Amino acid sequence: MPRGAFIAVEGLDRSGKTTQVTNLETRFQAAGIDVKLLKFPDRTTAIGKMIDAYLRSQSELDDHAIHLLFSANRWELATTIERLLNEGTIVVCDRYAFSGVAFSAAKGLDLDWCRSPDVSLPAPDVTLFLDISPEKARERGGYGEERYEKEELQRKVRTIFSKISGEFSAEKWVTVDAGRSQEDVAADVWSFVEGFAAGVHSPLQRLWTRNENERDSFNT
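Structure tokens predicted for Thymidylate kinase:
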């Protein structure tokens, strides 16, 4: 029996991730397919509440410490993700480990160190990167409300995302122009994921480990 597909949606702040993952959830549900939408950070857990306070600039933490908290927040749900996938449920994630790496590395932390805490997490079957310039993102409502929504940092994050994308095959990492209308972006996103509706027959891979579909990123 096929397992459920693991789909991650990444991008800069205000790139439209929340809108697109909600659209995906709705379309899969309309087709009668079991789907679970997860968002990282998950701000409902004990760790997530610490992260939420940090992102809202209500607390201060060392850059290394907050990075490890973000990773721990993902590990909190790793078993749940695997269980859902094995039950045949499609899992759609609004942000995943790639955001953690990109934002921390953009602040000056070592890229390989940033990857290390997330090694062996469940790997997405496909990651959709919603690409938008920081200037375009700034035009959207609510920009600047949280700690990381600063143009200079967002430009650095975009550069790190570009580097990360080179570690994966074209089938595993798909870049979508997110500077267009919501409808045009949604059409592209669906075209890339609709084939996963029937499930996945290959084994679930592990993030940043050597296997036939993923390069050894630590030597990239």
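Residues 63-86 form the longest helix (24 residues).
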